[in-house]
């Protein structure tokens, strides 16, 4: 962990046994595959690797939907390459719905992949069925987002924590397993007396401690933690993060930390993978990512994180537009509909900001977000003229204000043209106008992964062979 | 954000927390390095609303965490009608169990024919040779049996058959429903086609057919016949429960630790479906009692001589104009016990908060 530890280890809600005292006892069962593959200690060799994996969800409910045509699959994960190395914490960051949780689950074979391969210590574990996957389950564990939902309401904590050992035949007797459960409870900062309680009798933070204890029962090599603190009260979040942090160091775990929260990322991660619409668009060591983000999306995200030092604040780049549907992702670079750095065509005469302003208008037209009739109603409410010209003028003023950007004359003309067509009800014609007037290389070609300082970035601006200045933001 | 299709149910990215899409959904958070001093939070610094603050969970835990038994006890105390039903049911069960002690006379002892209720006859009941004056509170039937004693002994067979029947239906139905709901796909199709097929037949006709097929009457055959006829109700109920329960996070968690499907079904899913099952079973017992009575009435009951309520009812029907009590008295017994089970079942349904759609009542 690269984070400088500045606080005493995890002061829990209870006066816990500190993690150190019991850590040595937890190495009871070293994993079988660990011995089989003893030479794989090279820190650079990936423990778990995803090779171009995809996960599509079929939207169609049957053949009727196929006929009607709305059967496009949702591409939750689309061609992801990812490696988690021994003992490191990899954070997967992204907005809700970007596919990061699905990615976490496919990594553990809890969801079958649509394409690609998953390798654990070089062995292909893609699509292994229940019993074939079983030996790997000891090494690959998961902590869930909603701790309460992940614990069976009809089982006591003792039963929940003993189940993994029963399933894997660890421990000779029930007493032995109970003994181990007691150790685990101490390790995660719960009391032995909690053994016979039901999940609902705990606070959210304690429930998540139980969740963590369950993941540790089998002494895994890697834990996928899917938003492990986002369902918790703010004051408890840091405690759980510290707990994971400490345990990871003690037990030499690899963590794949799925989160939407950048402050959490900085808190726990060694490396970060940023996800957008099912793709990983940038990976980097955590310091590098925060100090020198390369992808425009990452930059926008980071600029939204408030800095404590006001002098260090840069202008915030607020992301515009809505997240496109993963069932119908934008062409080329999937971020182009919202990218503040979207690359202008070679013949563009104006500035980047001006192009962005025109391009945003284009996307609004293409997304049919502008409703001329609503504007007409609005105008009549203001008892202004409501003819097509007035509507077109209002559209232009409202969506591409002159104060915002002094657009080059031909661009301004194209926008007025499109606005007039919209006012006329010729939506398709308006779309054609803006598409022809404001093209971008970003929508034509999918960006390649360009290697960077300890990671890679998928953006044309970073790719030396593509147009666009990398330092525009 | 509406990019999640409503039917992509298994997509875990459909996260519980709401999505703050206006600011890009990612949370600007202040680097928190001092866990002991949480930010003062009127509005949490994390854009997405927190799920359930722990304080509320704590409260919830007080209310919600009760064992099944204590919930039943507490619920019955509040629902007087259901409590009454429970008392009557328990009363009937006790009477049935202790029939030899409760019944005034041996069910095989004969007295005067068709004596009206509240009449007396002369008989040697204790076998010591002396003739006593004996009371028949509910009269005697066409064979001279004491109606009350016959009803009490009849309760034994009728209730036992009903319980055994429901047990058969419960066991097979639950197994079918679990497998169908859990595995889905072709297993579901095959099993549920069978259930639909069975559902299309009226129970009694199915029962008659099965008894005919099984080679005649007899306790086992009656139990199996009625039991099989009710499999579909349990199978549907359990399948529905499993369909929702298998999406629960704790089932995913069970798979994540490598639990076998069988163990997931029996230890993780089934215990969480127990409440609707209890309600369903309670509501099925009266139906089974009626079905058994119906079969007896048709002459396909347990045996021509073992007293069951259905048989008593049927024996009296040809004398209904002359001696109404022979049929009406066992009829009242059936009615009372059926009502009692139904009020109890309805009460349990309210207690467990099981929705109507979950348990189909016929
Ligand atoms: S490729 Fe273009 S649209 Fe995509 S991130 Fe880079 S600049 Fe933005």
Q: How would you concisely characterize the structure shown here?
A:
Chain A is α/β, with parallel strands linked by helices and 473 residues long.
Detailed description of the structure:
- The complex is a heterodimer of chains A (473) and B (362).
- Chain A is of the alpha/beta class and 473 residues long.
- Among the domains of chain A are: 11-26 and 42-59 and 70-269, 3-Layer(aba) Sandwich (Rossmann fold), CATH 3.40.50.300; 352-439, no CATH class.
- Chain A has 18 helices and 12 strands.
- An 8-stranded mixed sheet of chain A has the order 6-7-8-3-9-10-12-11, with helices on both faces. Chain A has a 4-stranded antiparallel sheet with strand order 2-1-4-5, covered by helices on one side.
- In chain A, strand 9 (271-276) and strand 10 (279-285) form a beta hairpin.
- In chain A, helix 7 (174-187) crosses helix 8 and helix 13 packs antiparallel against helix 17.
- Chain A is elongated.
- Residues 1-43 of chain A have low confidence and may be disordered.
- With 362 residues, chain B is an all-alpha fold.
- In chain B, helix 7 (203-214) runs antiparallel to helix 8 and helix 10 packs antiparallel against helix 11 (261-269).
- Residues 1-65 of chain B have low confidence and may be disordered.
- Chain B has a single domain (68-361), classed as MetI-like (MetI-like fold).
- The two termini of chain B are 42 Å apart.
- Chain B contains 14 helices and 2 strands; from the N terminus they run H-H-H-H-E-E-H-H-H-H-H-H-H-H-H-H.
- In chain B, a hairpin with an 8-residue loop joins strand 1 (119-123) and strand 2 (132-136).
- The longest helix of chain B is centred in the middle third of the chain and has 37 residues, at 147-183.
- Chain B has a two-stranded antiparallel sheet with strand order 1-2.
- The interface between A and B is large, with 94 and 69 residues.
- Iron/sulfur cluster binds next to loops of chain A.
């Amino acid at each position: 962990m690269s984070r400088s530890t500045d606080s005493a280890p995890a002061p829990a809600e209870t006066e816990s046994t500190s993690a150190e005292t019991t850590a040595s006892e937890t190495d009871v069962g070293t994993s079988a595959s660990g011995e089989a593959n003893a030479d794989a200690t090279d820190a650079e060799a990936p423990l778990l690797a995803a090779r171009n994996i995809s996960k599509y969800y079929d939207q169609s409910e049957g053949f009727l939907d196929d006929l009607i045509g709305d059967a496009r699959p949702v591409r939750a994960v689309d061609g992801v390459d990812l490696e988690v190395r021994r003992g490191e914490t990899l954070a997967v960051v992204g907005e809700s719905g970007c596919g990061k949780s699905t990615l976490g689950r496919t990594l553990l074979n809890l969801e079958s992949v649509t394409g690609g391969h998953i390798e654990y210590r070089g062995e292909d574990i893609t699509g292994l069925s229940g019993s074939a996957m079983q030996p790997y389950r000891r090494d690959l564990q998961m902590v869930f987002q909603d701790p309460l939902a992940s614990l069976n309401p009809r089982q006591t904590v003792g039963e929940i924590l003993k189940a993994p050992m029963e399933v894997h035949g660890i421990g000779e007797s029930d007493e032995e397993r109970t003994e181990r459960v007691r150790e685990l409870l101490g390790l995660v900062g719960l009391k032995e007396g909690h053994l016979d309680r039901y999940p609902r009798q705990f606070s959210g933070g304690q429930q998540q401690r139980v969740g963590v204890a369950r993941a540790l029962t089998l002494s895994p090599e890697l834990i996928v933690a899917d938003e492990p603190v986002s369902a918790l009260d703010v004051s408890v979040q840091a405690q759980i993060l510290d707990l994971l942090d400490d345990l990871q160091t003690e037990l030499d775990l690899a963590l794949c930390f799925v989160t939407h929260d950048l402050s959490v990322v900085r808190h726990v991660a060694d490396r970060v993978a940023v996800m957008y619409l099912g793709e990983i668009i940038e990976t980097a060591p955590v310091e590098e990512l925060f100090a020198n983000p390369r992808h425009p999306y990452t930059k926008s995200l980071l600029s939204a994180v408030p800095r404590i030092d006001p002098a260090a604040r840069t202008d915030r780049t607020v992301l515009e537009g809505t997240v496109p549907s993963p069932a119908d992702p934008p062409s080329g670079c999937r971020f182009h509909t919202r990218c503040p750095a979207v690359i202008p065509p070679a013949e563009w005469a104006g500035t980047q900001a001006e192009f962005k302003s025109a391009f945003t208008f284009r996307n609004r037209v293409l997304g049919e977000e502008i409703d001329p009739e609503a504007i007409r109603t609005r105008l009549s409410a203001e008892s202004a003229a409501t003819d097509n010209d007035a509507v077109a003028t209002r559209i232009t003023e409202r969506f591409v204000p002159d104060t915002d950007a002094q657009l080059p004359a031909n661009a301004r003309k194209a926008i007025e043209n499109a606005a007039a067509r919209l006012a006329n009800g010729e939506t398709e014609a308006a779309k054609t106008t803006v598409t022809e007037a404001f093209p971008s290389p970003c929508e034509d070609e999918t960006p390649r992964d360009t290697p960077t300082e300890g990671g890679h970035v998928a953006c044309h601006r970073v790719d030396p062979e593509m147009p666009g200045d990398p330092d525009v933001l | 954000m509406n990019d999640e299709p409503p039917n992509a149910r298994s997509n875990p990215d459909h996260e519980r927390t709401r999505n703050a899409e206006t600011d890009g959904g990612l949370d600007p958070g202040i680097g928190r390095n001092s866990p002991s001093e949480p930010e003062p939070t009127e509005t949490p610094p994390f854009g997405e609303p927190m799920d359930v603050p722990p304080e509320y969970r704590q409260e919830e835990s007080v209310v919600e965490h009760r064992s099944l038994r204590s919930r039943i006890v507490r619920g019955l105390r509040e629902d007087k009608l259901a409590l009454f039903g429970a008392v009557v049911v328990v009363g009937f069960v006790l009477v049935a169990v202790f029939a030899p002690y409760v019944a005034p006379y041996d069910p095989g002892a004969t007295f005067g024919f068709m004596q009206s209720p509240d009449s007396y006859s002369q008989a040697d009941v204790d076998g010591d040779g002396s003739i006593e004056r004996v009371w028949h509170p509910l009269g005697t039937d066409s064979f001279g049996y004491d109606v009350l004693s016959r009803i009490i002994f009849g309760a034994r067979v009728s209730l036992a058959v009903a319980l055994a029947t429901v047990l058969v239906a419960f066991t097979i139905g639950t197994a079918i429903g679990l497998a169908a709901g859990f595995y889905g796909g072709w297993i579901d199709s095959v099993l549920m086609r069978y259930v639909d097929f069975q559902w299309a037949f009226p129970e009694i006709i199915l029962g008659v057919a099965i008894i005919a097929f099984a080679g005649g009457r007899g306790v086992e055959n009656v139990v199996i016949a009625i039991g099989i006829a009710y499999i579909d109700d349990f199978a549907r109920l359990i399948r529905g429960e499993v369909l929702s329960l298998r999406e629960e996070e704790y089932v995913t968690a069970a798979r994540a630790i490598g639990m076998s499907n069988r163990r997931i079904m029996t230890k993780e899913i089934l215990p969480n479906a127990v409440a609707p099952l209890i309600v369903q079973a309670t509501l099925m017992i009266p139906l089974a009692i009626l079905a058994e009575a119906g079969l007896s009435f048709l002459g396909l009951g347990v045996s021509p001589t073992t007293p069951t309520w259905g048989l008593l009812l049927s024996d009296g029907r040809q004398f209904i104009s002359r001696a109404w009590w022979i049929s009406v008295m066992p009829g009242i017994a059936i009615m009372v016990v059926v009502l009692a089970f139904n009020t109890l079942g309805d009460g349990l349904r309210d207690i467990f908060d099981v929705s109507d759609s979950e348990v189909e009542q016929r």
